[in-house]
């Protein structure tokens, strides 16, 4: 079975401290979230964590967009 990176590992590729893009801001903030589930790949578990713990995420739509990009990248 091929290696599949975690969502967090993928998200860290989107970081850009100079960007105002929503996905980059999500990644920038998640980097400093010490309790972020760094090895998780499951959308439901990630969504539940973010809904309960990520005050830095203004909209779950941002997570949805990031997770969609993650799924697309993992298909290759």
TrEMBL record:
Domain YozE SAM-like per the UniProt entry, residue ranges: 6-72
Species: Lactobacillus nasalidis
Protein name: UPF0346 protein lacNasYZ03_07840
Family: Belongs to the UPF0346 family.
